[in-house]
Every structure is written in structure tokens, then in C-alpha cells.
Amino acid sequence: MGMFDHLFSDGYEDTVEGVDFYLSKEGYRVMTESYLVKRGYCCSNGCRHCPYDPKATKGNRNLRPDVAKKYNL
């Protein structure tokens, strides 16, 4: 089990590398903006591609305006 797997109801089993995440040069799984939008809430871990505003606020569901527009939400 990965360090943050408890944040996701069904873990990372259904994620696709290159779509939902990529591996950093240090070997960490970096979740993409599209995955974080699809997940629907902020985990407050300061994700590199956090689409929520304010960033890193646990449970936040307010997308940044540019992100909402990008995904037609």
C-alpha cells in the first residue's frame, strides 16, 4: 500500500500512467490535474497540479476558474 492510498476509496488500481499520474525523477507518483478534477476534492497534501482554490485545503471542491473552464464544468 502506498503512502497516500488511504485518501482514495479504491486506491490507485484504476489509474493509468501518463493519463492519471506520472513518476517524478525521485520515483514519486504525481497525480495529474485531470485526475484530481475527476477525484472531485482536495486532499490537502499540496499536490503539484492541485486544481482547487484555495490550494491544499482538505475537502475543498471549488475548482480554480481556469480549470473549470478548461473542463467545461
What does this structure look like?
The protein contains two helices and two strands. The radius of gyration is 12 Å and the shape is globular. The model has no long low-confidence stretch (mean pLDDT about 85). The protein is about 20% helix and about 10% strand. Strands 1-2 form a two-stranded antiparallel sheet. The chain has one domain (about 1-73). By secondary structure, it is an alpha+beta fold. A hairpin with a 5-residue loop joins strand 1 (about 20-25) and strand 2 (about 30). It has helices spanning about 35-40, 65-70, and strands at about 20-25, 30.
- As laid out across the biggest beta sheet, the strand order is 1-2
**Major β-sheet profile:** 2 strands, antiparallel
In terms of per-residue confidence, which ranges show pLDDT below 50 for 5 or more consecutive residues?
A: none
Rg over alpha carbons:
12 Å
